[in-house]
Amino acid sequence: MSFILAPSLLSANFLHLEEEIEILNGSMADRLHLDIMDGVFVPNISIGLQQVKHLSRISFKPLDAHLMIVEPQKFIGLFRDFGIQTLTIHYETCTHLHKIIMQIKENGMKVGVALNPHTPIEVLTDVLEELDRVLILSVNPGFGGQKFIPNSYSKVSRLKNLINKKELNTSIEVDGGIDIKTGKMMLEAGANILVVGSFIFEAKNPIEMIKQMKGL
């Protein structure tokens, strides 16, 4: 089954981040997933803009950024300048969602919208045509290593049906508690982008684990 595998750097060893990037550069991973947190929208702080700038210089893989921050519109131009190819914002943080979606597209990046576990897919009905992807959070945002929320399976399936009904090519990305078992379930439900964190970085051989994941 053809899909995109995106290791999440949130689970990487930040004391040896350059070494981790070198490992991923030589792996079968398709792209790298950056979780940007501000300690306001979610109860955690992750990498900042300067780290994103340096990561873009050493990664051979395309970079996607998932903004778990308030007022994401203030930083669109910076993420563009740092080489981010896809910028994903949260429905829950955007009062003027359509306006911000268009700003991201005008800055030459692909755009995604993320939904927290409690947010129904129907809130995106009127903007789905403008999106390159929808990110379904299968854990509560903020920390890696959480347990997969089973309801995410039916949520992805419903979203896939809505996309097909509208005859769109919008991708479905899932993030949170993804491993071999849950990853296969999500692909069967209709997802085509898997974000995987601790399952890869805590493996004895991350490159081999990535290879196994790509074999789903």
From TrEMBL:
<keyword id="KW-0479">Metal-binding</keyword>
<feature type="binding site">
    <location>
        <position position="66"/>
    </location>
    <ligand>
        <name>a divalent metal cation</name>
    </ligand>
</feature>
<dbReference type="Pfam" id="PF00834">
    <property type="entry name" value="Ribul_P_3_epim"/>
</dbReference>
<keyword id="KW-0119">Carbohydrate metabolism</keyword>
<keyword id="KW-0413">Isomerase</keyword>
<protein>
    <recommendedName>
        <fullName>Ribulose-phosphate 3-epimerase</fullName>
        <ecNumber>5.1.3.1</ecNumber>
    </recommendedName>
</protein>
<feature type="binding site">
    <location>
        <position position="8"/>
    </location>
    <ligand>
        <name>substrate</name>
    </ligand>
</feature>
<comment type="similarity">
    <text>Belongs to the ribulose-phosphate 3-epimerase family.</text>
</comment>
<dbReference type="GO" id="GO:0005737">
    <property type="term" value="C:cytoplasm"/>
</dbReference>
<comment type="function">
    <text>Catalyzes the reversible epimerization of D-ribulose 5-phosphate to D-xylulose 5-phosphate.</text>
</comment>
<dbReference type="GO" id="GO:0004750">
    <property type="term" value="F:D-ribulose-phosphate 3-epimerase activity"/>
</dbReference>
<keyword id="KW-0170">Cobalt</keyword>
<dbReference type="GO" id="GO:0006098">
    <property type="term" value="P:pentose-phosphate shunt"/>
</dbReference>
<dbReference type="GO" id="GO:0019323">
    <property type="term" value="P:pentose catabolic process"/>
</dbReference>
<keyword id="KW-0862">Zinc</keyword>
<feature type="binding site">
    <location>
        <begin position="175"/>
        <end position="177"/>
    </location>
    <ligand>
        <name>substrate</name>
    </ligand>
</feature>
<feature type="binding site">
    <location>
        <begin position="142"/>
        <end position="145"/>
    </location>
    <ligand>
        <name>substrate</name>
    </ligand>
</feature>
<keyword id="KW-0464">Manganese</keyword>
<feature type="binding site">
    <location>
        <position position="35"/>
    </location>
    <ligand>
        <name>a divalent metal cation</name>
    </ligand>
</feature>
<comment type="pathway">
    <text>Carbohydrate degradation.</text>
</comment>
<feature type="binding site">
    <location>
        <position position="177"/>
    </location>
    <ligand>
        <name>substrate</name>
    </ligand>
</feature>
<feature type="binding site">
    <location>
        <position position="175"/>
    </location>
    <ligand>
        <name>a divalent metal cation</name>
    </ligand>
</feature>
<feature type="binding site">
    <location>
        <begin position="197"/>
        <end position="198"/>
    </location>
    <ligand>
        <name>substrate</name>
    </ligand>
</feature>
<dbReference type="InterPro" id="IPR013785">
    <property type="entry name" value="Aldolase_TIM"/>
</dbReference>
<feature type="active site" description="Proton donor">
    <location>
        <position position="175"/>
    </location>
</feature>
<dbReference type="InterPro" id="IPR026019">
    <property type="entry name" value="Ribul_P_3_epim"/>
</dbReference>
<dbReference type="InterPro" id="IPR000056">
    <property type="entry name" value="Ribul_P_3_epim-like"/>
</dbReference>
<feature type="binding site">
    <location>
        <position position="33"/>
    </location>
    <ligand>
        <name>a divalent metal cation</name>
    </ligand>
</feature>
<dbReference type="GO" id="GO:0046872">
    <property type="term" value="F:metal ion binding"/>
</dbReference>
<feature type="active site" description="Proton acceptor">
    <location>
        <position position="35"/>
    </location>
</feature>
<feature type="binding site">
    <location>
        <position position="66"/>
    </location>
    <ligand>
        <name>substrate</name>
    </ligand>
</feature>
<dbReference type="InterPro" id="IPR011060">
    <property type="entry name" value="RibuloseP-bd_barrel"/>
</dbReference>
